[in-house]
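Sequence decides. Consider this:

===
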Amino acid sequence: MPRPEDCLFTKTHEWVYREGDEALIGISDFAQQELGDIVYVNLGEAGRSLKTGDQLGEIESVKAVAEVYAPVSGSVVAVNAALADSPEKVNKDPYGDGWLARIKLSSLGELDGMMNFAAYSKHMADEGH
C-alpha cells in the first residue's frame, strides 16, 4: 500500500497512487480527520467511466456527508467493497485498507497538474491547516 510520500494530491484532498496504467484513489488523512467517524461509504459500481471532477462517491460521517470527486479520468476497475461493512477503515488507514477505488487511467498527463506530498503539505499550511 502507498505511503503519503508516494502519492499525488488534489486541493479537494483526494490522493492518487499510480501503478502502471492504473491508479489507486483515496482521501487524505486530513480529509478523514475533518469528516470524523465515518459510518457509510457509497462508491457506486466498477465499470463506470469518469472524467476528472466527476463524483466518484459519497462518504458519510457522524458530522457530514462529503462527495468524493474523481481526481483523474478513466474507467473504474474496482471499488473497495470491504468499506461497505467496515467504513471505519477510511479513518483507521486512509492510505492502506481505506482506499476507495482503482481507476484505469485515460491520460497520464493529468497527473502532471497534481501536488506531490511536499506541495500538498505546503498547500495545507497555506490554508491554515
In short: The mean pLDDT is 96. The chain has one domain: 4-107.
